Structure to design on (977 residues):
């Protein structure tokens, strides 16, 4: 049975037994390269649900405080390995109610980079077909067909994934996929090498350049599963106006810094912000850098242990800083 | 709004560098400022009277005093404006002394900076609102941490004042370092003879509870209402049954290092530190016990007439509540072996520490008071004392004077003559003699003249063994000559360190400590037994090296401070506390996680909807939650976001 079949079966069972009021998964979007979140309320709708390497959305975002509608709803949700870490992060902080959740874990072979795929073609993509062996066949409007190896067009973060299997789930959609021995291996931070090699001025220049295009649409903040302040966000505060509303590089940078520091130590790097940004700002960079610092200083990986607290909310005498 | 600004001269402290009259004049140009003055000493009686008069005459409703640090006089001026009928929290202090005049010499620039600091204070004072104190009930029980002479004295004084006291001591008996000493300077009275009656008093006093073999695990709460978790370590002996008969100690086949006798001779795995121990109860050192290490033996269990041995005992956590805490964790002897390789690193048998010599001299010590050379048991004919080992020596990271070594060395030199005969050659190598206490200088003179102890001014550069003697090579700086003495026994006056674990305890209590681990007093002159945490007091060598008279004096001082604190039934709390704007709270609970006092709680504002709420009487106004709140919905009264933003805006405004 495929993972997709598992998801549909678990959803149908949970809905028919009344264990959940609705079930959140993925469904076909408005064009072939886009998968969108699905909110399934009846057993008859479960056939909408799908699983393929385009299911990039972190559905845990919809469990955030104030989001479940109605507030006491019992919810079923699908999580990939990375998504499960955000769920663990929310559970650590008691920001979601475990009792009202039914979690289906989906072992993941990696998610494809939709934007990169689209850029491969001059024309519109009209069909994407997936083979069992991890091959992807893309058809364009003029009928051009090209076959890719799924692994060749993965998101950059997926190529360094240490948690392909969900850490927290009530049911698993299929057998676990092979994963690195986390005791033995270190995270791969090589994507940060270019940034870290820059001088302070160089870093400043880079950040100014990448944030210059920010339009303050709040997509990164809305999509972030651990960013939980909603309309109370200090970035929106007018009285006092702590962050200028002006769309300019300096204020944009401060805007992003607020987001980064408010999720520091809680962000498990799901990459949702990076994928949501309409102007393709590499938002992932600074969150990754923060996580590297936390890993080096405290050996801390956000959202990996249920009984752990976010690193900035604990005081440990053994922690040492600097020299 | 009618604001008054007072720019203090502080004699020439401020007026020497800042043109106070000009600044005061200029302050009148600020919005809402209706009065400005420059008193000579604002904190003096006429200074305060002029502030009060201005409040009444000019109908001031806000006051700024530009003077010293608020740490120094904020309380003074709050009281002053309150005396004139103003709410004390409608006052703001601008620090133009520590932050300005003391650190600058360019008068024009310093005047300009003072002007900026005052402008900021005025900007803030406009945003202030009247605040009112609450009163909280206080718990009148006192915790004394450490059962040495400091802890004993503090506990007895407190218990006599009618307060319930709990002494927590990490060893199995109270007594501390003083119990190990033989005689005390300068009177040469027996240490145990004066201490043990006090120890017994502690055990018998109806207001004192002894918790020996216990350690403080966790401290929460605040002055008047501390909650302390105490770890009762497993002694593997039921102390309710143990009668202290020592049969188990005699029969125990396993040897273990003897901490009480500073490692001179081994003790047993089951042990009672010394005959006068209070309480006199046995404990098993698990690391050395045959039953725990090899799974065989159980001799103590068989021989115990009271059936007290219990190998299954586990550590227990006991939670207690206290109103005040006296810290008396005492001292530890500098581990010279790890630092002084030129003195043989502890490998030369006939080189011992001062505290070891103390046990050697003691009649209830391992040698019954007989002084002998550890290498061959013979009585020494030549004894050399070396002072300042681990004191006044920056090369080992101990630049401070341990304050007691000059005196104890003189005492030990005298006792050497007493024990081994007047014909024994006794030398003392010293840097300076520090004998400042009552009768101390006279004592040193007596040791030098009456007892003929030879004092050599200079350091010892090397100790080494040759032909069964310890060769002491040093310099006599008065003669300007190298000296070499072939000694039978060398006693190193090892210095004093803060007790092991003092830093960790300080962190639990939220009090400061210095680079050497000594705990910091509130103010070196004016608050020598207070700490910077209200309700926590210091006694004895945990604060700095001290001799017994100074320790006992400080212990009594700490006790009287506690009595003064707990004489009231209720404590006024500071109104400068955190408050949650619940309509903006997003219920992320980070405030609850970070609060060191457990002040924020979840409050059900509507059925099923919880928001954070700060319990007023518990909040100490530290501001951690304010900084943590991601939506900025917690503010600290007296330090609101608006006030701080206005201050910053004023500072950036040119």
């Amino acid at each position: 049975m495929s993972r997709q079949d598992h998801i549909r079966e678990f959803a149908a069972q949970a809905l028919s037994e009344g264990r959940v009021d609705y079930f959140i998964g993925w469904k076909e979007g408005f064009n072939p390269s886009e998968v969108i979140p699905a909110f399934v309320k009846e057993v008859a709708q479960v056939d909408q649900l799908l699983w393929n390497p385009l299911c990039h959305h972190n559905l845990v975002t919809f469990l955030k405080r104030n989001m479940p509608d109605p507030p006491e709803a019992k919810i079923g949700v699908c999580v990939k390995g990375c998504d499960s870490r955000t769920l663990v992060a929310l559970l650590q902080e008691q920001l979601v109610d475990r009792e009202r959740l039914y979690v289906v874990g989906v072992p993941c072979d990696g998610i494809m980079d939709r934007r990169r795929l689209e850029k491969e073609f001059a024309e519109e993509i009209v069909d994407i077909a997936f083979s069992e062996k991890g091959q992807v066949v893309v058809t364009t409007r003029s009928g051009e067909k090209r076959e890719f190896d799924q692994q060749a067009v993965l998101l950059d973060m997926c190529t360094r994934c240490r948690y392909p299997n969900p850490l927290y789930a009530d049911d698993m959609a299929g057998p676990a996929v092979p994963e690195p021995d986390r005791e033995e291996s270190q995270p791969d931070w090589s994507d940060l090498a270019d940034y870290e090699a820059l001088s302070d001025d160089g870093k400043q220049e880079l950040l100014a350049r990448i944030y210059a295009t920010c339009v303050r649409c709040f997509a990164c903040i809305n999509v972030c599963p651990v960013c939980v302040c909603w309309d109370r966000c200090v970035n929106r505060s007018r009285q006092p106006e702590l962050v200028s509303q002006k769309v300019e590089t300096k204020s944009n940078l401060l805007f992003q810094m607020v987001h980064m520091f408010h999720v520091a130590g809680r962000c498990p790097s799901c990459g949702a912000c990076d994928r949501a940004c309409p102007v393709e700002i590499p938002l992932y960079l600074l969150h990754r850098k923060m996580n590297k610092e936390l890993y080096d200083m405290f050996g801390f990986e956000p959202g990996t242990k249920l009984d752990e607290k976010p690193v900035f909310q604990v005081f440990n005498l053994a922690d040492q800083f600097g020299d | 709004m009618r604001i008054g600004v007072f720019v203090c001269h502080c004699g020439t402290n401020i007026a020497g560098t800042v043109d106070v009259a000009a600044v005061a004049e200029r302050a009148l140009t600020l919005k809402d400022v209706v009065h400005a003055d420059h008193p000579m000493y604002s904190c003096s009686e006429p200074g305060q009277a002029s502030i009060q008069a201005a409040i009444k005459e000019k109908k001031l409703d806000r006051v700024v005093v530009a003077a010293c640090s608020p740490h120094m006089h904020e309380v003074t001026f709050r009281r002053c404006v309150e005396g004139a009928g103003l709410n004390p929290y409608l006052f703001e202090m601008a620090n133009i002394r520590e932050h300005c005049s003391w650190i600058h010499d360019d008068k024009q620039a310093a005047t300009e900076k003072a002007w900026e600091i005052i402008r900021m204070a005025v900007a803030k004072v406009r945003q202030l609102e009247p605040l009112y104190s609450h009163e909280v009930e206080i718990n009148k029980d006192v915790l004394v941490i450490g059962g040495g002479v400091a802890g004993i004295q503090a506990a007895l004084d407190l218990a006599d004042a009618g307060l319930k006291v709990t002494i927590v001591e990490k060893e199995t008996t109270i007594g501390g370092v003083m119990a190990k000493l033989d005689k005390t300077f300068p009177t040469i009275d027996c240490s145990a003879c004066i201490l043990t009656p006090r120890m017994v008093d502690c055990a018998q006093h109806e207001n004192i509870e002894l918790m020996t073999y216990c350690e403080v695990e966790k401290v929460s709460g605040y002055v008047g209402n501390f909650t302390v978790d105490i770890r009762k370590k497993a002694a593997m002996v039921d102390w309710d049954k143990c009668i202290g008969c020592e049969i188990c100690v005699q029969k125990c086949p396993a040897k273990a290092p003897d901490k009480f006798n500073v490692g001179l001779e081994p003790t047993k795995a089951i042990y009672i530190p010394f005959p006068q121990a209070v309480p006199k109860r046995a404990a098993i050192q698990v690391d050395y016990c045959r039953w725990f290490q090899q799974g065989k033996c159980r001799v103590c269990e068989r021989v115990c007439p009271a059936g007290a041995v219990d190998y299954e005992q586990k550590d227990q956590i006991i939670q207690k509540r206290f109103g005040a805490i006296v810290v008396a964790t005492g001292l530890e002897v500098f581990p010279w072996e790890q630092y002084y390789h030129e003195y043989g690193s502890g490998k030369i048998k006939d080189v011992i520490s001062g505290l070891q010599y103390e046990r050697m001299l003691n009649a209830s010590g391992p040698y019954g008071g007989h002084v002998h050379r550890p290498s061959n048991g013979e009585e020494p004919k030549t004894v050399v004392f070396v002072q300042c080992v681990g004191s006044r020596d920056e090369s080992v990271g101990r630049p401070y004077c341990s304050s007691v070594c000059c005196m104890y060395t003189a005492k030990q030199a005298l006792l050497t003559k007493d024990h081994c005969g007047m014909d024994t050659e006794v030398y003392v190598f010293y840097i300076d003699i520090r004998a400042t206490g009552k009768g101390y200088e006279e004592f040193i003179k007596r040791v030098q003249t009456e007892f003929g102890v030879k004092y050599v001014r200079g350091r010892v550069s090397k100790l080494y063994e040759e032909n069964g003697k310890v060769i002491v090579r040093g310099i006599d700086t008065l003669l300007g000559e190298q000296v070499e003495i072939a000694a039978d026994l060398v006693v190193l006056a090892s210095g004093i360190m803060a007790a092991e674990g003092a830093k960790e305890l300080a962190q639990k209590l939220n009090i400061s400590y210095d680079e050497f681990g000594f705990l910091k007093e509130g103010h070196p002159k004016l608050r020598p037994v207070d700490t910077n945490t209200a309700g926590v007091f210091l006694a004895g060598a945990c604060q700095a090296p001290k001799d017994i008279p100074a320790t006992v004096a400080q212990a009594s001082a700490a006790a009287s401070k506690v009595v003064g604190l707990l004489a009231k039934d209720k404590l006024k709390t500071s109104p400068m506390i955190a408050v949650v704007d619940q309509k903006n709270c997003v219920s992320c609970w980070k405030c609850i996680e970070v609060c060191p006092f457990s002040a924020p709680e979840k409050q059900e504002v509507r059925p099923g909807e919880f928001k954070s709420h700060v319990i007023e009487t518990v909040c100490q106004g530290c501001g951690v939650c304010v900084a943590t709140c991601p939506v900025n919905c917690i503010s600290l009264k007296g330090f609101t976001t608006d006030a701080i933003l206005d201050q910053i805006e004023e500072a950036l405004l040119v």
In short: The interface with chain A takes residues 504, 507, 584-590, 593-594, 608, 630-633, 641-642, 645 of chain B (CB under 8 Å). DSSP finds 17 helices and 34 strands in chain B.
